Amino acid sequence: MMYIGRLSALLAIAAAPFSSAFTARGNGFLNLLSSTTAATSNLHISSIIHKNKQQSSLHLMSPHDIMDADSISTATSFILSRGSRGSMENAVPPSEGVTLTILTAGFAAIVWFLANEYKYLKEKSNVMDGALNKKERDFTWIDLIDYRLDYFFSTNEWAKVILLFGLSYVLVVFGAGLLVIGDSDDYDSISEAAWTSWTYVVDPGAQADAPSELIPRAVSLFVTLGGLLVFALLIGIVGESIGEKIEDLKTGKSRVFESDHTLMLNWNDKSIAVIQQIALANESEGGGVMVVLSQLEKEEMEERLESAINAKENPLDLMGTEVVFRQGNPILENDLKKVSANTARAVIALTPPDFDSDEADANMLRQVLALKALDEDFGSDGERHVVVELQDVDNKELIKMVAPDFAEIIVNHDMIGRLMLQCARTPELAYVLDSMMGFEGSEFYFDTWPELYGKTFKEITVRFDEAIPVGFRSEDGDVRVNPMDDDVYLEGEEILVLAEDDDSYEPNDGTYPLTAGDCIGNEEECPIYDADRPPEKILFCGWRRDMSDLISQLDEFVPAGSELWLLNKIPANMREERLLDGGNKAMLKLKNLIMKNVVGDHIIRRDLKRIWDTNAQGEYTGEKVTLDQFDSILILSDETAMKSGEKGSTSSDSRSLAAVLIIQDMMEKMYQLKKRKFASSPDPIKPPCVPVSEILDTRTKSLLNVANCKGYVLSNQIVSSVMAQVAEEKDINVVLSELFSSDGSETYIRPVEKFVDLDEEDTLSFWDVALKARQYREVVVGYKPADLDYDDAEELIINPPNKSVPRRWKEGDKIVVFSLED
Has this prediction a pTM greater than 0.90? Predict the structure, then answer.
């Protein structure tokens, strides 16, 4: 309060020359100012007035004297004596003191701020003059002020608000002061003058009630014009603030407050499929929350989602799941906090688009480290984990090294390659895998059933009416797919099944007989099935970066002496270098395959008619084949499509679709020609194989159906389904890895004759066939009747109903199994 008193005194001193303009009103401006000063500084104005009351001027005081409290009181009292005509009889109302204190303090703060800014600009001007070294100054004070204002407004988020209040304050003080100074009986107190000035600022119509004197009307006009400027500034600030907030909401800058949600990082051509699978997984719970963080604009991601929902072909159904989008960098800690990554149930880290394989995997490494840095305990409880999409299998160990506990790795190219190889040799397998990988039908679940403790796997095979037992998971997390028949289900273990949902199945009473599998160990009573396979001819159309891995995987599947023909536009003398991938891959050491090189384009008919082998120098070796001689034809996606996002996927699918149509047409013509040429031959003519094409965009599926193309693998769809399943249950990754590996139990389609002697017995239940398959250590998961195609037999392929009901089996029926051997 002492400092406010001093400031008031200083203003009083400055206002002394105007004292003669005041009237004899005892509560005039200076009287109020002095009274407020005395009240706030606790200085009693008594008898310190200069003895010579006739003296018409103040004694001059030094700055030291001014800051002295007694001097302040003396000066203020003297001004009071002049303004009040020597009388102090009228008391000052408390409200007047408060008003004047507020006005004085605010005015002093503004003066202090401007003085400091002037000092700063003066110093800056001197520094610049010194730097110019006596050269002609090339800037003005206006330039310095502009620079300072620019800095102030760009670094202080409250700068506009401060400016607004500052202008309003100056207008109120200026107007109030002029109204009090003006010779009018309408404003006999500073409070009344300040309130009137404030009404002029906020209400332009208030000037209509101004007194008729010149000064009040001039003040009302000036303050009203200033008020209009303030109002315009207020509207601009409010409008801009609301606009910025709406823009923040549109661009997804606000924080997400969710827990137990699924978080997807980055956006690529698998995102829509992942969202669909997570929505299917949440359906039984009435929906859930999925949060997406990507560097794409929030509006763009929302438009893509909306487009998928409104699609005429296979529209996206969220089934109650709420999808929240946020724009940001997934490898930055602040952006991960924004989407509540540390409270997410599972994180799905997709490869960012437009990255090559090595760069994408390096980004995924940093992604995992960012999650670990966000929360050191992330995944330590075993409840939360991150599903990481990688491009190169060689980088898998790097992720395991930094996150062995919570990172589940899906190697995109490796999985697609294995899918393609399995489907190329058995094209119908694509339907089975598509049904098994997604949440639309039956999927994998773990659960504990104490009533089955001590039972063998063979006994458990027929204990679930609505599920297919596949294996066990031990207490330490080891998963055993397709165990031995005498493998016992121990306490604390879980049973792995294929079921429609986690609450859709339970054990039955266990009364179904196991006699159908009694021939195990008695080979004379079991059907004999010759599984020997002759060498195969396989054609690969196109080229991929991971071609070396793909060929190595194929070498593990095929019989010895099989031939692999590579048809692509890469010159033969450059292929060995491409297979080495710049030294990142080892030299191929093939045991079963013999490689043949063909240079050409698989969407050009003349190149498909001349499938001639060439050596490393590009010379023809004289060996040639025709399309109808191949046992399997695999059409690979273009290498450029792997790093070109959705545009590249569409381009690659267009070429694949064209290749399938051309190859099918050429092979059909060759087949019909052979039928006519060898019509009299008793030997059956081998029908052409079904070419299998890799399809990246699920929207291409409808075009394939229109074109009657039977062989295709929706690679992105299946990989997305796998990632979604692993996000829901991390140990599913072990199961799926084994099903896609040549070392574990793979998925096969068997003829029913392998398990059933149709001449002896043809009426058996599904469980009977499943028990007979156990003699080969195979798990039967479904079947396809001969008179139905795979689309019509969708409910029977995986986990069929009525497992205990006998049906008549016939030639052409197919059995879907998990088996250790082909």
Answer: no
